[in-house]
């Protein structure tokens, strides 16, 4: 019974109101800690919040990571602008090298924001061409992906990248593994000039056969987009059919080729001794004659048929097709134009 009475008294205390004592502060516990904050300034010892003292290499790497991982379009754009300024500086500041920049930023070829893709092109143009050439195969893989993207704006910007790549490393583009046939396949997907429908176009007429494209002609500005695609195709074929300049005889160079180890990286890549097996599209076509041979077998009929149909359309498309016709005619003469301006007249 004593225990029961004790529990009742404890419960009764819980429901009693606290008695307020006027003029007296509540007693503080022995382990009380004062957490009130009355300071008007913060002093941080041995640290700084300024960006001037940050290491330039670390800041470059931070912006390189920010250009890819930032969710904000403005942050990615500003990071690319910073990287472009650092690479274009005298002397340039690029602690990761051209290979590191390309590896990190190439996925932005298919970025959804137009300004980001424009800044990316400006950054690539600031890179030294001699350092871009060894990585053409990797760059070309992303450019072809952009050329066959569902978005017409991304396809258009990918053509700008293709034009830049042909200007700085045209020979490497048409001679690297997959650079010739796979790129022609991408142009075919953009224009609808497929070898499988080439015979149908020639037999049924240029207006009766269906044309499979990526939707450029159906949208506003489709004619300008198609003309642009034909122009870059003419530039690509002009580089591929360009006659090789004869190398003057040099006895020292001749003996070096026979007895000295090659000084270039992977000099026997065209043999594919240790790489994965490649099909015809992945093969290297290092000389003009091999590119002409496979072009005549697989693409000449389809491109000629599509070009004739484009010439009948007139306007910008017809003029671009006429420039492509001149490239193919000059190729027969062995004097293919070397630039886009000479190709389109």
Describe the structure.
Mean pLDDT is 81; it is low at 197-212, 215-220 and 335-345. The protein is 59% helix and 0% strand. Helix 5 (114-126) packs parallel to helix 8 (152-175) and helix 7 (136-147) runs parallel beside helix 9 (181-191). By secondary structure, it is an all-alpha fold. The chain is elongated, with a radius of gyration of 33 Å. It has 16 helices and no strands. The longest helix has 24 residues, at 152-175. The protein has helices at 2-14, 56-69, 73-88, 97-105, 114-126, 129-132, 136-147, 152-175, 181-191, 195-204, 222-240, 251-259, 288-298, 300-313, 315-333, 340-344.
Largest sheet: none
What is the H/E string? HHHHHHHHHHHHHHHH
Structural class: mainly alpha
Give the overall shape, derived from the CA principal axes: elongated
Mean pLDDT: 81
Task: Point out poorly predicted stretches.
Answer: 197-212, 215-220, 335-345
Task: Work out the helix count.
Answer: 16
**Got a strand count?**
0
Q: Termini separation (Å)?
A: 113 Å
Task: Give the C-alpha Rg.
Answer: 33 Å
Assembly state: single chain
């Amino acid at each position: 019974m004593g225990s029961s009475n004790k529990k009742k008294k404890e419960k009764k205390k819980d429901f009693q109101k606290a008695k307020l004592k006027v003029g007296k502060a509540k007693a503080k516990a022995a382990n009380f800690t004062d957490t009130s904050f009355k300071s008007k300034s913060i002093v941080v010892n041995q640290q700084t919040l300024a960006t001037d003292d940050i290491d330039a290499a670390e800041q470059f790497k931070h912006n390189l990571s920010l250009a890819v991982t930032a969710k904000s379009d403005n942050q990615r754009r500003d990071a690319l602008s910073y990287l472009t300024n650092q690479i274009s500086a005298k002397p340039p500041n690029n602690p990761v090298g051209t290979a590191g920049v390309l590896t990190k930023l190439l996925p932005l070829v298919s970025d959804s924001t137009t300004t980001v893709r424009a800044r990316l092109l400006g950054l690539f143009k600031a890179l030294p061409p001699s350092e871009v050439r060894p990585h053409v195969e990797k760059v070309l893989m992303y450019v072809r992906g952009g050329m066959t993207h569902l978005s017409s704006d991304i396809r258009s910007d990918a053509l700008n990248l293709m034009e830049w790549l042909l200007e700085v490393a045209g020979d490497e583009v048409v001679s690297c593994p997959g650079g010739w046939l796979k790129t022609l396949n991408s142009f075919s997907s953009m224009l609808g000039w497929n070898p499988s429908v080439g015979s149908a176009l020639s037999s049924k007429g240029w207006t009766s056969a269906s044309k499979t494209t990526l939707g450029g002609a159906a949208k506003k500005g489709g004619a300008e987009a198609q003309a642009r695609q034909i122009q870059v195709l003419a530039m690509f074929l002009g580089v591929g059919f360009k006659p090789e300049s004869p190398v003057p005889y040099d006895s020292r160079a001749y003996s070096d080729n026979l007895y000295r180890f090659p000084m270039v990286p992977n000099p026997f890549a065209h043999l594919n001794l240790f790489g994965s097996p490649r099909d015809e599209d992945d093969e290297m076509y290092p000389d003009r004659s091999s590119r002409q041979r496979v072009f005549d077998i697989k693409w000449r009929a389809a491109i000629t048929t599509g070009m004739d149909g484009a010439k009948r359309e007139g306007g910008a498309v017809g003029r671009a097709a006429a420039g492509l016709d001149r490239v193919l005619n000059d190729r027969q003469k062995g004097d293919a134009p070397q630039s886009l301006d000479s190709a389109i007249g």
